[in-house]
UniProtKB/TrEMBL annotation:
A GO cellular component entry from the record: mitochondrion
Keyword Flavoprotein: yes
Originating organism: Zalerion maritima
Catalytic activity, as annotated: (R)-lactate + 2 Fe(III)-[cytochrome c] = 2 Fe(II)-[cytochrome c] + pyruvate + 2 H(+)
Its EC number(s): 1.1.2.4
Top enzyme category: oxidoreductase
Taxonomic path: Eukaryota, Fungi, Dikarya, Ascomycota, Pezizomycotina
Keywords: FAD, Flavoprotein, Oxidoreductase
Entry protein name: D-lactate dehydrogenase (cytochrome)
Part of the whole protein covered: 89 to 567 of 567
Cofactor requirement: FAD
Similarity comment: family membership: Belongs to the FAD-binding oxidoreductase/transferase type 4 family.
Molecular functions (GO terms): D-lactate dehydrogenase (cytochrome) activity; FAD binding
UniProt domain FAD-binding PCMH-type: residue ranges: 47-226
Amino acid sequence: RFAQLTEEHVAYFRDVLGKDHALIDGVTSNAVEDDLEAFNADWTRKYRGHCKLVLKPGTTLEVSQILKYCNDNHLAVVPQGGNTGLVGGSVPVFDEIVMNMARMNQIRSFDDVSGILVADSGAILEVVDNWLAEKGYIFPLDLGAKGTCQIGGNVSTNAGGLRLLRYGSLHGSVLGLEAVLPDGTIVDDLSKLRKNNTGYDLKQLFIGAEGTIGVVTGVSIICPQRSPAVNVAFFGLDSYEKAQLAFKEAKGRLGEILSAFEMMDGISIDFVHKVTGNRKPLEADHPFYCLVETSGSNADHDGEKLEAFLEDVMGQEIVSDGVVAQDDTQIQTLWKWREGVPEVVGHWGGVYKYDVSIPLADLYTIVEDTKAKVQEAGLMGDTDEYPVVDVIGYGHMGDANVHLNVAVRRYDKRVEEVLEPWVYEWIEKREGSISAEHGLGLAKKKYIGYSRSPTMVGLMKHIKDHYDPNGIMNPYKYI
Ligand code: FAD
Ligand code: 2HG
Ligand code: ZN
């Protein structure tokens, strides 16, 4: 239903963008095949498109001109940020044009009293966060891909990350957006107001829309002050039940300074150890590990609180063993045991990823049941003949969000058939969500009905049709 790219189309885009480096043109030249690869392949190497044209606009006006032209000429477009998404949403399915936002990377304004930042959507999360650090502020989102992902990509996926527990969702911290609709309309809603009840809050539609209704070009966001004192503890536990008790104790004893509560099972930590060769933080092995971070204003006081918490949970035999980081380097090192898991889990060949929300009591049961399921099917073992290496669970326990990862030696239809839709049915029965924070993309498009009613899916389709009647924005995905 879309048009094929022609030399005439490319000439128009060249004219709009002006600069040669703002465009990778595989339509009129074959010499750029290798350059296109990075834009066609996703982070997991599971999804690959065949786009022949990458456009890198430098201004909102250019985005508007390009989208209007694409809409008028029925050319499909995939908006792309840092291409770190994990559901196959950021790469084309066929030969859609990729609109990469990397050139729009400027900070537009910052209010040093309110902490309100306005920046281009292509700004890299870590670059923005480092910039804010110099001013004593912090970006209210942090995740393992921070060095590559863009704030426009974060907003478009409604990324959750490692500190949602403390700073809440982007639905709360984003105050305004600038976006471009497929017909070229510039949605000019870059509000810098904390409170603004004048009509529908339309920016919320773009938060988590995964590029299906428009391109986000600017973000206004309220950033908290950076806590001068950050402390981290890492501990081992005998069971998931004990991890739940530790979480409850952490909320009770560390409440106002608690900024992260992450959980990893023993195999996740074994994986990081095997791949990196690094020495584990605790002497003995444990079935579960938790990482607790506090962010407050008084290093000694917060440190004492965290030590006292650890002594208490060890005294109650909730926690078997633990360590508190003594300096920034140790803090970074402990965080690597958590942030490193998604990096290493694909080491054996591939990984089936399920990013799910489930009420806390059942959060780890899905990992146990999935492991039993692949074992029963005779698909998991230590040698090459078995596709599955192991099944692991880790994630944002403080947000009741677990990452169920099935590490495989190769992608295998039999594994997929055993797991899908079984995993989604499992989640539906517990009234969980099949996508806690990564979105739907291509990976979960078919399964949206397990977490949303027909009425809700119908309303979403209305919205999509209203904003994008020709369906040019990120087609074949989402709904
Ligand atoms: P991309 O991957 O480029 O795009 C993601 C989606 O957003 C696509 O559908 C794309 O079309 C759309 N999009 C991108 N930019 C725009 C724009 N400007 N306008 C409109 N649509 C746009 N996610 C979490 O939620 N929490 C985590 O803790 C987390 N940790 C991760 C750790 C690692 C190591 C990796 C590789 C990924 C992790 N992710 C996590 C997933 C991913 O990093 C996030 O989804 C991130 O927000 C994607 O940003 P991006 O710029 O890379 O977007
Ligand atoms: C994380 O929390 C990310 O580390 C990635 O959301 C999870 O790769 C995954 O499954
Ligand atoms: Zn996550």
